[in-house]
C-alpha cells in the first residue's frame, strides 16, 4: 500500500510498506535509477524473471540501480501467500 502527497510529482514522494509492514519513504532512492516491478511467486515466468532481475541488478548496481519488487495477486491469483510466505519464497529463489 502506498501513500502520497496531494499532487505527487515524483515516485520519490510516495511511502510504501515493506514485507514486514514498515514504512519505506521512496525519497531515500533519489539519485538512483529505479526498476519497479510486480512479482508473483506462482507465475510461470517467476524463475526466469528473478534470474534476469538478479543479473540486471548485478550488472548495474554500481551505477545506482535499485530494483523494487512488489508482490501482486491481482493477475490470476498468482501471489496468494501472506507476507511471511512471500519473503520465504524470495529467499529461496534468489
From TrEMBL:
Keyword presence, Transferase: no
Full protein name: Glutathione peroxidase
Coiled-coil region list: none
Gene3D superfamilies in alphabetical order: Glutaredoxin
Protein keywords: Oxidoreductase, Peroxidase
InterPro entries, sorted: Glutathione_peroxidase, GPX_AS, GPX_CS, Thioredoxin-like_sf
Cellular component GO terms held in the UniProt record: cytosol
Domain of life: Eukaryota
Organism from which the protein derives: Actinidia rufa
Family assignment from sequence similarity: Belongs to the glutathione peroxidase family.
Transmembrane intervals: none
GO molecular function, one term: peroxidase activity
Signal sequence coordinates: none
GO terms, biological process: response to oxidative stress
